[in-house]
Amino acid sequence: MKVTVLAEHAPLARWILRHLRDSSTGVEDFREWMRRAGLLLAAHISSEIEWEMVRVKTPLGAEAVELEPREKPLLVGILGASIPLLEGFEQLYPGSPIGLVAARRIEEGEGVEIRLYYERLPSRYEGTAVLVDPMLATGQTIAAVADAVAARGARRIIAATVIAARPGLSYLQAHGGVDHVYTLAVDPMLNDKYFIVPGLGDAGDRSLGVTPDH
Length: 214
Ligand code: URA
What we know:
The chain is an alpha/beta fold. The strands form three sheets. Strands 1, 4, 5, 6, 7, 8, 9 and 10 form an eight-stranded mixed beta sheet that branches. The chain is built from six helices and twelve strands. The structure holds uracil. Uracil (URA) is lined by residues 81, 135, 137, 195-196, 199, 202-204.
């Protein structure tokens, strides 16, 4: 599994993180910076999809050869934290099919288990799938979604995250199924509630502006 950390090449990623990590960023700005993170990630994963050459005529009457996507990647959002991040992807890949899944954390003794309780995915899909989830914490959710997408035939599975925790990347590497993780940053650890530290807090609550009562 390859891991690309955008903050290592693009200072813009650090500027986005500066806003997302800041506890004083309110819901409106948080969503806006998540959308920008989506745009940046979507631009970087463009080398993962297939392109074809097209000829265009410029206003000077000259010909130029440029590219158009040959395939529309399947974008898979994980509810609800991924909604603004997914919007950034949808802007750069207009018309891409969108799958949605929802996962629940079940705390069991010392550990935590992830169960998918909603899957709206195509019955068959054999192209490139991009799993869009801002936080790769334990890695179990992305692993479960990768399994669900692989079962439908996906040829290549990419994960796009804002912050990936080192233990989650190790889990995902051992689990297999994801070909390449793109993330703005890698953080060192999880706390005892499986939150990424330093992280950015609860990406779902901050993206949706609602703290659920369960
Ligand atoms: N999900 C979040 O929203 N934040 C974390 O730190 C980990 C998982």
